[in-house]
Amino acid sequence: MAIYQADQAASCFVTVGGDSIAYRKIGAGSPLLLTNRLRGTLDTWDPLFLEGLAQEHTVITFDYPGVGYSGGVLPTDLDALGRLVIGLADALGLDRFAIGGWSWGGIVAQVVVTDHPERLTQAVIMGANPPGKNEIPIQQAFLDRALKPVNDLADEEVLFFVPDSPRSVAAARASHERIHARPGVVDRIPSTMPEFMRYFKAVEGFRSDEEDRRGALAGTSVPILLLCGDHDISAAAGNWYPMIGAFPRAQLLVLGDAGHAPQHEYPELAARYINTFLDAGTS
């Protein structure tokens, strides 16, 4: 089996807001900070995807407070989540950086876009809805699997891939094997309802959108790449369609035969798309 930089990277720690925050860094080039999904840890990114990004960028992954290897308690307030990312960037000496967020991390990334645009060069949103009310709801099949204490490969096929597609199921198995080549992956994944509820509280604020981040996102000057799967049962690509035309700095890319984790479904292709977007600059 291939050996990836992400599997060899040591966990490092910085203090942000009084909490010890774990992070890993691979590659070289302009910085790309990745914000993770619900229940995601440093160990649950597909290393082949990270490897592709690291060919052209310094890729930084981290664990939220109270998650994975980090101390503290996961914030539930959107403002606090935005400040967390900026605090981490400050601790790492990053003046301006690109952000990439997946799923729940896509919510966090959008908060940084709307609340701290001056710190960003670009943003990549993967498998996430826009703020506010969306027409296409999350499907029950996702919730039935997402809240199990431990998810196995069969769960991942439903949650992140396309279970009735042989090609997608094969991609799920390959991604699972790459991720779980690192020992102890499941040991630090949040697995209790009190932990889940902290994630959900942040989602509630994102959906109610009392601060009109939806409007701020549509008018932002930060270039955004929206990377979606056409069979995402959690965050349907179609929820972005009403914003097209009023979203001057966004590009929408929908990958076929892909679910909620398009970057794990097509790790090398997704990394190339993202690198091309980031390398195009901010003009």
Q: Roughly what fraction of the amino acids lie in strands?
A: 15-25%
* Strand adjacency order, main sheet: 1-2-4-3-5-6-7-8
Instruction: Give the CATH H-level superfamily.
Output: Alpha/Beta hydrolase fold, catalytic domain
Sheet/helix structural class? alpha/beta
Would you report the number of β strands? Answer: 8
Q: Give helix % range.
A: 25-40%
Outline: globular
Count of DSSP H/I helices? 11
Supply the CATH class: Alpha Beta
- Average pLDDT rating: 96
Indicate how many domains the architecture comprises.
1
Our measurement of the CA-to-CA distance between the termini, rounded to an integer number of angstroms, reads 40 Å
Low-confidence region ranges: none
Q: How is the CATH topology named?
A: Rossmann fold
What does this 3D model show about the protein?
The protein has one domain: Rossmann fold, CATH 3.40.50. The protein is globular and about 45 Å long. An 8-stranded mixed sheet has the order 1-2-4-3-5-6-7-8. The termini are far apart. By secondary structure, the protein is an alpha/beta fold. It contains 11 helices and 8 strands.
Give the SSE map:
Layout: H1 5-8, E1 12-16, E2 19-26, E3 30-35, H2 47-54, E4 57-62, H3 78-91, E5 97-102, H4 104-115, E6 120-126, H5 140-146, H6 153-160, H7 166-179, H8 193-208, H9 213-218, E7 224-229, E8 250-255, H10 262-265, H11 267-279
Parallel strand pairs: 3-4, 3-5, 5-6, 6-7, 7-8
Antiparallel strand pairs: 1-2, 2-4
Helix pairs in contact: 2-11, 3-4, 5-6, 6-7
Features of this protein?
Rossmann fold, 8-stranded mixed beta sheet, 11 helices, 37% helix, globular
